[in-house]
Automatic annotation (TrEMBL):
<dbReference type="Pfam" id="PF11248">
    <property type="entry name" value="DUF3046"/>
</dbReference>
<dbReference type="InterPro" id="IPR021408">
    <property type="entry name" value="DUF3046"/>
</dbReference>
<protein>
    <submittedName>
        <fullName>DUF3046 domain-containing protein</fullName>
    </submittedName>
</protein>
Amino acid sequence: MRLTVFWERMTDHFGPGYADTFARDHVMAELGGRTVHEALDAGWDAKDVWRVVCTVMNVPWEKH
């Protein structure tokens, strides 16, 4: 998954005002105790990060 698609999905789900805040502030054990930004900076694949976000935040897979 391209980062542009990842950020489009984040914005679609969380809204333009909250997507970056969530990505910057929400630490997830499933990302090794990292935020979305930290996981992406550490080399995690955007698709894997999106799967974690969907699981943790109960985003239905069929919607994305």
